[in-house]
Amino acid sequence: MSQKTFATPAYASIATLSAYQSSRSVEELKREYEVNDVLKLASNENPLGCSPYVTLAITEQLGQLARYPDGKGHDLKQAIAYFNEVHSKQVTLGNGSNDLLDLIARTFVGHEDAIIYSEYAFIVYAMLAKILGAKGVEVPAKRYGHDLPAMLDAVQHTPNARLVFIANPNNPTGTLLSSEEIRDFVAQVPSHVLVVLDEAYVEYSPESNNRALLEDFDNVIIVRTFSKAYGLAGLRVGYALSHPEVATMLDRVRQPFNVSLVAQSAAVAALGDQDFIAKVHKINDGQMRWICKQFDALGLGFVKSYANFVMVNVGDAQSINQALLEQGVIVYPLTAYGLPEWLRITVGTPEDNTRLIDTLRDTLQSL
After folding, report:
1. How would you classify the pairing of strands 39-40 and 329-330?
2. What integer pLDDT is reported at residue 3 of this predicted model?
C-alpha cells in the first residue's frame, strides 16, 4: 500500500479521472488562431439567446447585488411547481443541471454502491462514480442510444446498484426513448434504486416529458436546466423534480445560496415566456431538417436527433475539427466518448448553419 501524501485523493479512482473537457471558448479561439469572426456550435447553447423578459428581470435586480439570494428559492420553486403541476416541496434548485446530478449522487451514493449508465451517454455520469469511489457500470449502447432491457439486467445483477442515469434526449447522440419504454423500465426497477431522468433537452422534444412518472413512482428524479432552450447557460440554473422525501434529502446536502439572485429572477421570467420557447422549438426543428439534408448531400452519416444538436460522422474527426477551428468554427469532437470519427454540432441560426455547411464542405474537399 503506497504512502499517503498531501495530494492523495479520497479514492484511488479520482487519480484516474480526467477533468471535464468543455468546448473551446470564443475568446480562446481568437487568441490562439487570430480569427475575429468566430462561430461557436459546440455547447448546444441557444443561438436565439433568451426571452426579452429575462433581460428586464435581470435589470431590475442590478441594484440588489450586495444582497444574498433567497436561500429557499421560494418564487422560482413556486413558478416551477406551477408549470410542472407538482408541489413546491418536490422541487430542488441547482446551479445548472450538472450541479443537481452531482448533488443527487453525493446524497444517495456511497463508495460501496454502484451507478448504472449507458455507453455514449453524458460523460459526467461516469465521472461521478469515480469521484465518489463508487462502481460505475457502463451498459453497451443500442444504435447509439440507451438499451433499456440491458440496463435493467445490469441493475438486477449489480450488487448495491443505487442510481441509474438516463439522458432523454441523450447527449451527445440525440437519441430518444419513448415514454412507454421508460415507464416499463421504471416499473421493473427495484424501488430502492433511484432512476434519474436527465431531461436537459426536453423543450426540443416535448413528447419526452416524463413528469407523469412522479405520480406513480417514488424513486424517479427528473432533472432539467435553463441552459439550453431557455438560453440561460451563463447564469447556471436548473431544477429537479422528485418525491418530497427525496427533495428533503437533497436540500440537506445542497450548498446554501447555490442559485444566485439574478439567476432566480431570470429563470422565473424565462419560464413565464412559453411563446419564446415555442419559437425556439419551431426554428430549431426547421434548421435541424435543413442541416441533415446538407449532410445527406455531402454523403455524411448522422444520427437522427431529437435535441438541438446533431452527431455526424466525418471520418477523420480530429483533422476536420482542427481545420474548422482554424477557420473560426467551433464544434465538439467526441473522442472522449469513444467516437473518434464523430462531431457533435449545435443547430444555429440559418446564417450560422449556412456558414457551417460551406466551411465543412470546403474542408472535406481540401483534405
Report:
1. parallel
2. 86
The residues that bridge with 339 in the sheet, in sequence order, are: 334
User: How far, CA to CA in Å, does 121 sit from each of 52, 168, 347, 353?
Assistant: 33, 10, 19, 25
Say which residues have a Cβ less than 8 Å from residue 21's Cβ, sequence separation at least 6. 336
The structural domains of the chain, ordered by start, are: 21-47+273-364 (3.90.1150.10), 51-271 (3.40.640.10)
341: burial class by Cβ within 10 Å (0-12, 13-18, 19+)?
A: middle
Q: What is the pairing mode between strands 220-225 and 238-241?
A: antiparallel
43 within 8 A of 22, measured Cβ to Cβ: yes
Return the pLDDT at 34: 83
Taking each helix axis from N to C end, the angle separating 244-253 and 97-108, rounded to the nearest 10 degrees, works out to 100
The pLDDT, as a whole number, for residue 308 is 98
- What are the pLDDT digits (tens) for 181-197? 999 999 999 999 999 99
Q: Which residues contact 226 (CB under 8 A, 6 or more apart)?
A: 232, 235, 237, 238, 263, 266, 267, 270, 271
pTM of the model: 0.96
- Average pLDDT (276-284) is 98
pLDDT in tens, 324-363: 999 999 999 999 999 999 999 999 999 999 999 999 999 9
The end-to-end CA distance of the chain, in Å, is 51
